[in-house]
Backbone:
């Protein structure tokens, strides 16, 4: 997105001219650094929209272990912030900037009025929330039924390059497991010649062998 262009609120196509003007007057644009917690389900601080960057939605256990549920990208609305506003939180999750981001926020009272009086927005958000629930259910299925070697292998093969700049801690956070489990599995992959480990990164040197090791069809 060219940041010199004005931001177009994703729901504008459902709004009247007066409603669009109201949104424009109340929308707050903020630059946030990577690692900033944007939402923690303890209070409703407005509806969030990603203008630029990548935002991670994850769950945090009492012991401090994390598991990634899904990510938000350009023009995505944070449905968790909407759910909090509507008093129907489906789960207690955290929202954090994965990269440096530009975030738009709309106050609770303005968004509540738009939602209450516009059936198209209600339908859009219902569809959007259903998609996010599907994302979460996929994660639950992976945790419950997929072996750890498959989950770690699929994570590595999903990256855009054969050289993956990632720490063992980061993989553990993504998959909701312990660092020690990740380290053991990566060493197993390396021993079998599938990957080559270095500090802060790894290289996939035999992707086909890695696939065969956990029988990806």
Residues:
């Amino acid at each position: 997105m060219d940041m010199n262009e004005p931001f177009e609120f994703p729901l504008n196509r459902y709004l009247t001219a007066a409603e669009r003007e109201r949104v424009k007057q109340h929308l707050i644009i903020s630059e946030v650094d990577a690692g900033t917690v944007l939402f923690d389900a303890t209070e409703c601080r407005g509806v969030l929209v990603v203008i630029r960057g990548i935002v991670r939605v994850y769950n945090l256990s009492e012991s401090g272990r994390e598991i990634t549920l899904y990510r938000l990208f350009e023009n995505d609305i944070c449905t968790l912030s909407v759910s909090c506003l509507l008093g129907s939180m489906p789960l207690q999750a955290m929202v954090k900037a994965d990269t440096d981001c530009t975030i738009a926020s709309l106050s609770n009272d303005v968004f509540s009025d738009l939602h209450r009086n516009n059936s198209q927005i209600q339908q859009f958000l219902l569809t959007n929330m259903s998609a996010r629930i599907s994302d979460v259910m996929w994660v639950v299925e992976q945790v419950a039924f997929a072996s750890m070697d498959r989950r770690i292998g699929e994570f590595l093969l999903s990256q855009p390059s054969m050289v993956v700049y990632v720490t063992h801690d980061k993989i553990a956070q993504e998959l909701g497991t312990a660092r020690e489990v990740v380290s053991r599995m990566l060493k197993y992959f390396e021993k079998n010649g599938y990957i080559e480990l270095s500090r802060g990164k790894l290289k996939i040197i035999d992707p086909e062998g890695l696939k065969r090791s956990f029988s990806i069809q």
Summary: The radius of gyration is 20 Å. Residues 12-144 form a domain with the Jelly Rolls fold (CATH 2.60.120.10). The beta strands are 28-32, 37-39, 47-52, 55-60, 66-72, 94-97, 101-106, 163-164, 195-198, 201-204.
